[in-house]
Specification:
Elements: E1 7-10, H1 17-28, E2 31-34, H2 35-43, H3 47-71, E3 76-79, H4 88-97, E4 99-104, H5 107-114, H6 128-146, E5 149-152, H7 158-171
Parallel strand pairs: 1-3, 1-4, 2-3, 4-5
Helix pairs in contact: 1-7, 2-3, 3-4, 5-6
Length: 172
């Protein structure tokens, strides 16, 4: 295990990073942190408003600062935003500072899980499926590049995914 004893969850929106992360942290006795929620707490506004005021580029700058700060902490479970891995700096920090767990899910599952969620600026479009397919094509190789463990979450219960992760941690 990498020295920090931290676990960083990466994957697309709707993969279950926050839900799984909370349970994983509870079982491991670690602190759970959601990088997107921390950005919102720091700025005092939600992510859609940051996108509206600063654009995706402004949000990504804030995200990179937050990922740098959070990955320096020890003994945490961190749920990252789906696009955090777009930054090579973020990928370096994630890979070097903890165990990276890629929660993979299909576009079909993402559509089901995000259908009513208005807090996802990239999906506020005529064709969210096309957007999700484009995002997956770009991001999947980046998730895989830094992952120490990849788990497919399609059709899985949260507790089953958490058990798989814990089993992997215990075996390594």
């Amino acid at each position: 295990m990498k020295p920090s004893g931290s676990f960083f969850l990466v994957g697309p929106m709707g993969a279950g990073k926050s839900t799984i992360g909370r349970q994983l942290a509870r079982i491991l006795g670690l602190e759970f942190i959601d990088s997107d929620r921390n950005i919102e707490a720091q700025t005092g506004v939600d992510i859609p408003l940051i996108f509206e005021l600063e654009g995706e580029e402004g949000f990504r700058r804030r995200e990179q600062e937050m990922i740098d700060r959070l990955t320096r902490r020890r003994g945490i479970v961190l749920a990252t935003g789906g696009g955090a891995i777009l930054s090579s700096v973020n990928r370096q920090h994630l890979a070097a500072r903890g165990q990276v767990i890629y929660l993979h899910t299909s576009v079909e599952q993402q559509l089901k899980r995000t259908a009513r969620d208005r807090n996802r600026p990239l999906l506020q479009t005529e064709n969210p499926e096309a957007v999700l397919r484009e995002l997956m094509a770009v991001r999947d190789p980046l998730y895989r590049e830094i992952a120490d463990l990849t788990i497919d979450t399609d059709g899985c219960r949260v507790q089953d995914v958490v058990k798989k992760i814990v089993r992997h941690i215990e075996e390594n």
